Amino acid sequence: MKIVICVKVVPDTASRLKVAEDGKQIAVGDLTWIISPYDEIAIEAGIQLKEKHGGETILLSIGPERVVAGLRNGLAMGADSAHQIDDPAFESLDGAGRAAVLAAAVKHLGGADVVLCGHQGVGDDDSQTPGLLAAALDLPCVSGVVKLDIEGASAVAEREVEGGIEVWETSLPAVLSTQKGLNTPRYAGLKGIMAAKKKPLDTLDAAALGVPAEAVAPRAVRTA
User: pLDDT tens for residues 196-220?
Assistant: First the structure.
C-alpha cells in the first residue's frame, strides 16, 4: 500500500504572536514551528496502515527551510521518506493553490492508494485543503475521520457529526482527513531520530512538478 501524507508546519500554539512591521503579516523570526497536531494524527494513521498492510509512507510538505525539521520529525515517527515542496511561486498559496500543488506532487510520485491529511491546519484553520485536493485528484473524500478500517480496495470510515456518527464506505484510492480521536500519535524516540537522518528527504519545485506560477496564484476576492 502506497500512503501519501500531507503535512503542514505551523507556529507552535504556545508561541506568542507579534504583528510584522508591514502590519499585515505575523512576525515569524522568533516563532517555534511544529507539525500541525491534526497532521500528526494523519502520520500516525499512515504508519499504522503500513504496519498492518505493508507498503510505504511518504510525507509531503509545502514551505521553506523551516518545514524540514517537521518532516524529519515525521520520519523519526516512522514514515519512510519525505519531500519538501519549495518554490518562490508557492509563497502565498490559498487553499486552492495548496491543493493544486499537493495534487501535482501526488501525481509526480505516481499516485497513491491512500492520501491522508489532517482535518485542518491549526495555522489557518480553514479546513479546505483535503476536499480541494480530492477534487484536484478526482478522488473520493471522507473528512473528519475518527475510525478507519481498510480491507482490499475499500475503506470504511466513521466521522462525528452533530448528534451521532456517520459511517462511510469508499473505494480506494481516496483522500481521507483525520480528526482527534482516531489515534494517539507516537513520540519519536532516539532510535527513530537517528534513523530519520538516513531516510530520503528531497526538495521539489514548480519546474519538477510542472506547475506554472499563474496556476496557483491566489484568487482575487470580489467585493460587492
Answer: 999 999 999 999 999 887 778 766 5
Report the distance separating Cα 84 and Cα 69, nearest Å.
10
Q: Would you state the torsion angle of the CA atoms of residues 105, 151, 36, 139, taken in this order, to the nearest 10 degrees? A: 40
- Per-residue cell: 186: 507516537
Q: What cell does 14 get?
A: 504556545
Residues 61/67, Cβ–Cβ less than 8 Å: yes
C-alpha cell at 124: 489557518
Entry pTM: 0.90
Q: Which 8-state DSSP code applies to residue 52?
A: H
Which helix (H) or strand (E) segment holds residue 154: the answer is: strand 154-161
56 backbone dihedrals φ, ψ, rounded to 5° = -145, 155
Q: Among all chains, which residue has been given the C-alpha cell 507552535?
A: 12
Tens-place pLDDT, residues 71-120: 999 999 999 999 999 999 888 888 889 999 999 999 999 999 999 999 87
